[in-house]
Design goal:
The complex is a heterodimer of chains A (110) and B (113). Chain A contains no helices and eleven strands. Chain A is an all-beta fold. The mean pLDDT of chain B is 94. The chains are: A mainly beta (110), B mainly beta (113). Chains A and B meet through β4, β5, β9 and β10 of A and β5, β9 and β10 of B.
């Protein structure tokens, strides 16, 4: 298994519903980040949670981090069609090495 | 507008060509990165520069040659590529150690023919 596994791989929901994605990792981290990527484009940084934080909010986004389980979740509330994208978690080590999860492809149907 | 600018946005090159990808950031970051991303896969780290020095090379073939002329610029020189090298190449910058997260450019879509 690779560091930064995500589930589900694909998620399809109706507009207005909430979407939850999970990420697991294997090694010690300084922080964990979530990114969004629209098809074929660059990644957009959504939110960062430090290893000493347990929960963080930003607008419709809520991120949790459980360092004992080496896992994180991203919740998008009241989803919109424009939220359709791929979502990746990424971890940063002390050496500056970043590792991305396999990603979750979210489809929000209008 | 992204704060990390990559050029060109698209590049088609033959297997005998030499080309370069360019990346520029004005965020005051002292770490810069090259990633390769194949379709429907996560970005894979290729190189990390910290304080303009190569700190991580993820066993990338020598046909990819990175260069960091100064703290704002990062190049990736390409020579004798293979069709399987076709991918989206992403540049990113951050504070050293990845603190604060990474800022990505929009990428260069490379096709090797």
């Amino acid at each position: 298994s690779q560091q930064g596994e995500e589930d589900p791989q694909a998620l399809s929901i109706q507009e207005g519903e909430n979407a939850t994605m999970n990420c697991s990792y294997k090694t010690s981290i300084n922080n964990l980040q979530w990114y969004r990527q629209n098809s074929g484009r660059g990644l957009v940084h959504l939110i960062l949670i430090r290893s000493n934080e347990r929960e963080k909010h930003s607008g419709r986004l809520r991120v949790t981090l459980d360092t004992s389980k080496k896992s994180s979740s991203l919740l998008i509330t009241a989803s919109r069609a424009a939220d359709t994208a791929s979502y990746f978690c990424a971890t940063a080590s002390n050496a500056g090495k970043s590792t991305f999860g396999d990603g979750t492809t979210l489809t929000v149907k209008p | 507008d992204t704060e990390v600018t990559q050029t060109p946005k698209h590049l088609v090159m033959g297997m005998t060509n030499k080309k370069s990808l360019k990346c520029e950031q004005h965020m005051g970051h002292r770490a810069m990165y090259w990633y390769k991303q194949k379709a429907k896969k996560p970005p894979e780290l290729m190189f990390v520069y910290s304080y303009e020095k190569l700190s991580i090379n993820e066993s990338v073939p020598s046909r990819f040659s990175p260069e960091c002329p100064n703290s704002s610029l990062l190049n990736l020189h390409l020579h004798a590529l293979q069709p399987e090298d076709s991918a989206l190449y992403l540049c990113a910058s951050s504070q050293v150690g990845g603190k604060g997260g990474y800022t990505f450019g929009s990428g260069t879509r490379l096709t090797v023919v």
